[in-house]
């Protein structure tokens, strides 16, 4: 755990087991991401609130014109409820391809010392009643790069109506966001934590992916603890963008919880 993580209230999930399926997948993805490591620069600030998602789709994604066939056939394996620290959360599938591809897209900006951010969009697949055995699964299918403006340490979406139009047109929901920490370690800054409250309030399963190619680990998949992290950050009225939070477990690693990395299809949509 880095000092950045400690000062921002990071607490590891208790269910991660080295050598597990998820652990092996993460190792493979990290190796792939490392092969596309980009030039380092400063921290990112995703200043704009995310777009409002459309209501969850009531039926299987097979009804969608853009749903790849393999999404519907993904195996239903998930950690046992006893090992799941957030048993109420439904599984989120994150394609392996996300991690090598986003840093590659961002490299155009990073060589110019500019930040990059993206949105993780997808579907809700309902296979039956919302019982532990048949709970809905969210599948991230699209990495959307919105129009944005950036500096060496900030990045904000422009023309959010364009993002909303896209998600509505294709019936996608916002399942998370991704951004670069090119020269810092893999952690959630105070700005990132505040940004993520908007996502997690809209969808409790929302994830924040941080890519940090100069760090080890070089990416992380995070969520606010709930409680107490989500409530702490929502109540925080700090005026400065970067500020400390109370010394409680504010966020944790979602990849060791409700997120499964799989060889699912990923579409890249660049609105810039
Ligand atoms: Zn705060």
Write the layout of secondary structure elements.
Layout lengths: L2 H5 L13 H14 L34 H4 L18 E5 L2 H13 L6 E9 L11 E9 L2 E3 L4 E3 L2 H11 L2 E8 L9 H13 L4 E5 L7 E6 L4 H7 L15 E3 L5 E4 L4 E4 L2
Parallel strand pairs: 1-3, 1-10, 3-11, 6-7
Antiparallel strand pairs: 2-3, 2-6, 4-5, 7-8, 8-9
Helix pairs in contact: 2-4
Bound molecules: zinc ion.
User: What class do helices, strands and sheet pairing give?
Assistant: alpha/beta
List each distinct ligand once: zinc ion
The name of the CATH architecture is: 3-Layer(aba) Sandwich
Strand runs, count: 11
Structural commentary:
With 272 residues, the chain is of the alpha/beta class. The chain has one domain: Cytidine Deaminase, domain 2 (3-Layer(aba) Sandwich). Helix content is 25%, strand content 22%. It is built from seven helices and eleven strands. It has helices at 3-7, 21-34, 69-72, 98-110, 160-170, 190-202, 229-235, and strands at residues 91-95, 117-125, 137-145, 148-150, 155-157, 173-180, 207-211, 219-224, 251-253, 259-262, 267-270. Strands 1, 2, 3, 6, 7, 8, 9, 10 and 11 form a nine-stranded mixed beta sheet that branches. A two-stranded antiparallel sheet has the order 4-5. Strand 7 and strand 8 form a beta hairpin. Helix 2 runs parallel beside helix 4 (98-110). Zinc ion is lined by residues 190, 194, 233, 236, 238, 243, 245. Its cofactor is Zn(2+). Residues 48-58 have a biased composition (Pro residues).
